[in-house]
Amino acid sequence: MRSSPLIFAAEALAAPEGTVFVDTRPRDDWAKATIPGATCLNVYDYFIAHSDERGIAAMVAGTRAAFRQLGLDRAPLVVFFEEQTGMQSPRGLWFHELCGFDGGRILDGGLAAWRAAGGGTAAGAGATGRIGDGDPAQAGAFRSELVAATEELLEPGAPELHVLDARRPAEWDGSYVHACCARAGRIPGADLLFYEDLLQDGRYRSPDEIRRIAAAAGFGPGQRIVTYCHRGARAATTLYGLRSAGFDNVAIHPGSWHEWAGEPDLPAVEGTGAFVHR
Is 130 exposed, middle or buried (0-12, 13-18, 19+ CB in 10 A)? Predict the structure, then answer.
């Protein structure tokens, strides 16, 4: 079993010298008040063009360049945080791990937990960065087990693959669709586990609670799970919630529904008919 992806505020306050804190909130929030010395990295606004070999390589290359620019490829411990645990700090950790870097953690409870534990804040200053596409030829080696290309979701007769939709129930059943998506619905065979069900009061639920919630939605620790959402952020929150509960084989379909909906030849379904955890 992998080590926990989480670090708690008391541990973060005692983090060793050389630890890098990464604020994944909007730049204006970072500039007002952040963990002293934290850098700012925009991990949220990125959309992958295509979840194929070339598109994934471009994403990895751009991510690696952004991390190197901020020194995140050399730090022994990198702590990603936001105001409370939500969609941004897990996505930051996913990008970090995808590039093959070690020592990344999510500050569970975020900046709010840091303050509650007695941690101070300071105005953000210094270099900032954002995730974008790079030259696919510069991608280098990466952790391919953390990312699922479109082809994996289309492979027939793969009973070991379980697709998890981390969006809201209304997105899963097609009764709501984001304006930027070409159509409503879900990937065929996807079961719903709304990402917020793994959180409580701005933190991840306990491993026992997460295992119970996942089991009720049809997911178990021994499965190969591919999770998706609108564009990959909520999927990352889900991945690390599951990881904290002992699910070690979870990947993200990075284009998620935004990309899938824009490909008219890809299948989609709407309506209910499978278990929905609420």
Answer: middle
Structure tokens at 185: 């619905």
- How far apart, in Å, do the first and last CA atoms of the chain sit? 28
Domains along the chain? Answer: 6-138 (3.40.250.10), 148-277 (3.40.250.10)
β-bridge partners, 7: 107
Identify the CA nearest to 192 among candidates 255, 257, 249, 254: 257
- In the residue annotation, 229 being an active-site residue is answered as yes
- The one catalytic residue among 40, 99, 181, 229: 229
Chain segment 193-204, per-residue pLDDT in tens: 999 999 999 999
Please calculate the CA angle 168-171-175 and round it to the nearest 5 degrees.
125
**CB 91, CB 228: distance < 8 Å:** no
Task: List pLDDT tens digits, range 6-24.
Answer: 999 999 999 999 999 999 9
CB contact burial 102-116 (16+ within 10 A = b; e otherwise) = ebbbbbbbbbbbbbe
